[in-house]
Amino acid sequence: MVEWYGADPDKIVVIPPGVDTQGFHPHEQEEAKSRLGVKPCERMVLFVGRIEPLKGVDTLMRAMALLAYDCPTFVSNLCVAIIGGDPNTTENEEMERLKAIRAELGIADFVTFLGAHDQDKLHHYYSAAEMVVMPSHYESFGMVALEAMACGTPVIASEVGGLAHLVRDGETGFHVPNGDPAALAKAMARLVREPGLRDRLGQQAFRYAQEY
Hints:
The chain has 212 residues and is of the alpha/beta class. 42% of the residues lie in helices and 14% in strands.
């Protein structure tokens, strides 16, 4: 507004969206896994969102394929859980495209479509996950990132739209270039290999989310 319209910055107030910190808050990871029926040894990479091309889920799947083929022992207990849409319908073209990509990449053992879930269950998934990944090509704000951070989970996000401002690179998670599976795979591997870093980013993400 200031740059394009010459607005007076003293007359501009920015009010961001907020998160319900009573509903979205940290749980012990093992407790959250138990509630979801996830084995303690399994490590979950989580995506939550609509199943549409703008969300860049294919980038996440290609990143997982890179890890699966380059480091097979490293990902033996790592999985990608995708929450959103209905995996049992054939009416969603993007869901069908993503299933075809999963088959083409040979990563059916590593990628699971869980379908849509109620809001009151998501905090358990956020807490159980090692990280939340948002490989979107654009996000106006990125509410999922804020919900994840409120649960103490670090976020890896494309450096686009609102995510470029909401996720703090190296503080609450990591930024990666839009549509870059190799960079995303590198960031994912780092959080899995360095649990101390993952915990530190998660704690900082939780504190940051309290501002919203």
